[in-house]
Design goal:
Elements lengths: L3 H15 L3 E2 L4 E2 L10 H21 L7 H11 L16 H14 L11 H12 L13 H12 L6 H12 L2 E3 L2 E2 L9 H17 L5 H18 L24 H8 L7 H16 L48 H4 L11 E4 L4 E6 L4 E6 L11 H5 L3 E3 L22 E4 L5 E2 L4 E6 L4 E8 L2 E10 L2 E10 L3 E6 L3 E2 L3 E7 L2 E6 L2 E7 L5 E6 L12 E10 L2 E12 L10 E4 L4 E4 L2 E4 L2
Antiparallel strand pairs: 1-2, 3-4, 5-6, 6-7, 7-8, 9-10, 9-15, 11-12, 12-13, 13-14, 14-22, 15-21, 16-21, 17-18, 18-19, 19-22, 20-21, 23-24, 24-25
Length: 593
């Protein structure tokens, strides 16, 4: 792990690489030719604002004052309605409202100088531009925090702040509260990284800056963040990476922004050495990934440049939202955080249930591999590749997941950690929306309908080396059926072993095995196109089971064993009794619901 100054130099280097791409009197960032659902002009404003997530903590921590004037010039002109490069007037659901949060935090953080360097007229222009956030309609989700953070920033520089605006938006957020530290990102919406990097990150900042004006709510937010932290730490491994799933993964190390807010606001949850270890291992893991282009700019993608996984709202400027995690740089070298010795993760429960999120998180291989079983995440907004990002049975920190590349052919259908069906025409459907979900201490049950006359009930059962999937398929039509385990990097493959009832793939990166517990399906390996996996650009190899289902009711049962090691642990005895609907797992017998 690096010392503070090394992370400071890293952040300064990212700023230095981006600054030459500021255009139009420094009011926009122009770094690429791809597009988002909003115009390029607004994307340029987004880019300017997201660089403030680097600049503001650096300035607050006594660094990077030599870059302040560059951004002051952009603010001076961008907020001036008489200037040709004015950032403009907002309309409903405007992306510029999102970016105003960075200005709110920049004003709130101490000693940035971004407010004091402006003249009185320029301060007035900035204030008027920001106050538009209180006047527009916004999506009913994490966006409610953006007008709030504007009001917080105005309060911190001594301007009038409107508690009616704050109450309106924070009261709306209460309807998303699920209990035990968890929100959904809107009523009935997913529980993903927006809960950590959005809801709790922003509410912790609010609790710090507003405790004199809104003490009761601030205490409530801090209590909720403590609850959340005890689940969220399971998303991270001892190697530093987190489990990739859900949308907006191009924001990369924003996954650790919550922990940076924990440290900066002094939230008492885990010890400071433990939290420091989580943050720095995560940043160091990302610094080893090839996501920065030769010019030093952040690319669209996850571990490597990859437009396949991006969202409609990802412009070339979007990835710098990752830098919300750099809040720790606002802490000086002498702070307790930077003086502490990093510590390992606390000893985890091997299998950790999170009922509010519909997830089990399992840790293995000395905490180097974490995977999640999940059901019930859905959003009618139909985000790009939603099925792959939310609908799979399992997500792994080590093996990642595969994105769909086409409608035709099982190799394009992203069948890893999925059960997929075809009407014998090579067009494939898997789980998307769950009609019903129930979670107990030992399993997750979901019911889903790939067609109106095909009903699938799925039980996901975790165990230490992997998980078991049980499916009851009730179909009125003849279907081909393919079920996949985790995908392995084909260019790192060492060997493939096909047995009568399953397939084992071994690669430099680890091992994955799928085993049919009812001995009715044929093993095969599916090869995916390059640039499909979230973690690596090479083609993937997915161990699979295939069968043909005639009209009627069928039981499908398999075990997935996966490890980051080069060998699998000794197998656990497993069997399923279809008649009694009972699973034998080692010395235990489990009756499914």
């Amino acid at each position: 792990m690096r010392a503070r100054q090394e992370y400071v130099e890293m952040a300064r280097k990212w700023l230095v690489s981006a600054i030459p791409h500021l255009t139009r009197d420094n009011t926009r960032l122009d770094v690429g030719n791809t597009s988002a659902q909003y115009p390029a002009d607004i994307a340029g404003i987004e880019g300017f604002a997201r660089l403030l997530w680097i600049l503001s903590p650096l300035l607050s921590g006594g660094e990077a004052s030599d870059y302040r004037e560059t951004f002051i010039r952009g603010i001076r002109h961008g907020c001036d309605p008489k200037h040709p490069d004015y950032w403009g007037n907002l309309v409903d659901n405007d992306q510029r409202c999102v970016e105003m949060a960075a200005f709110g935090v920049a004003l709130a953080l101490p000693n940035t100088g971004l407010w004091n360097e402006l003249t009185a007229d320029e301060q007035g222009n900035l204030e008027r531009w920001l106050r538009q956030s209180a006047e527009i309609q916004i999506p009913d989700n994490n966006w409610h925090f953006f007008p709030v953070l504007v009001q917080v920033g105005l309060k911190c520089v001594g301007r009038h702040y409107d508690m009616m605006v704050i109450d309106k938006h924070l009261n709306a957020i209460e309807s998303f509260w699920l209990g035990n530290g968890w929100y959904s990102d809107g009523a009935g919406k997913p529980r993903d990284y927006y809960i950590s990097s959005g809801f709790h990150f922003y509410s912790l900042l609010y609790s710090h800056f507003m405790q004199d004006a809104d003490p009761e709510r601030c205490l409530r937010y801090r209590h909720r963040a403590r609850q959340f932290a005890k689940d969220y730490i399971y998303y991270f491994t001892s190697d530093g990476n987190a489990i990739p799933f859900g949308r907006s993964l191009t924001y990369r190390f924003v996954q650790v922004a919550f922990w940076s807010a924990v440290v900066w606001t002094g939230l008492d949850v885990f010890t400071l050495p433990i939290v420091k270890g989580v943050i720095l291992r995560h940043l160091d893991w990302w610094l080893a990934q090839p996501f920065i282009d030769p010019e030093g700019l952040f690319s669209l993608g996850y571990t490597y440049p990859n437009l396949v996984m991006t969202e409609d709202y990802n412009s070339p400027c979007s990835p710098w939202w990752a830098c919300k995690a750099l809040l720790i740089l606002a802490l000086p070298e002498q702070s307790a955080f930077w003086q502490a010795e990093s510590a390992p993760l606390p000893e985890p429960e091997p299998i950790h249930p999170i009922k509010e999120a519909g997830q089990f998180v399992v840790h293995d291989d000395e905490n180097r591999h974490a995977w999640m079983l999940m059901s019930g995440q859905y959003d009618r907004n139909n985000f790009v590749n939603f099925d792959a990002k939310y609908g799979k049975f399992a997500y792994s920190s080590h093996f990642g997941f595969t994105l769909e590349r086409g409608l035709y052919g099982i190799n394009h259908a992203a069948c890893d950690s999925m059960l997929m069906f075809s009407e014998q025409d090579n067009y494939w459907r898997g789980r998307r929306e769950c009609e019903a979900v129930e979670m107990t201490d030992t399993l997750i049950r979901s019911r889903w309908l790939p067609w109106s006359d095909v009903a699938v009930t799925t039980w996901l059962i975790p165990f230490q080396q992997g998980h078991i999937r049980i499916h009851r398929v009730e179909t009125a039509r003849t279907l081909e059926c393919v079920e996949g385990g985790f995908a392995l990097n084909r260019h790192q493959l060492i060997d493939t072993k096909t047995a009568q009832h399953g397939v084992t793939l071994r690669a430099i990166s680890g091992v994955c095995q799928i085993t049919d517990l009812l001995a009715g399906r044929q093993p095969e390996v599916v090869t995916t196109p390059p640039n499909s996996n979230i973690l690596y650009a090479s083609p993937g190899e997915i161990p699979c089971l295939r069968s043909t289902l005639t009209p009627g009711t069928h039981w499908l049962v398999c075990a997935i064993n996966a490890t980051s090691l080069l060998w699998l642990p000794p197998p656990v005895a497993m069997a399923f009794d279809c008649e009694n609907q009972a699973l034998t797992l080692g010395a235990k017998t489990l009756e499914i619901l």
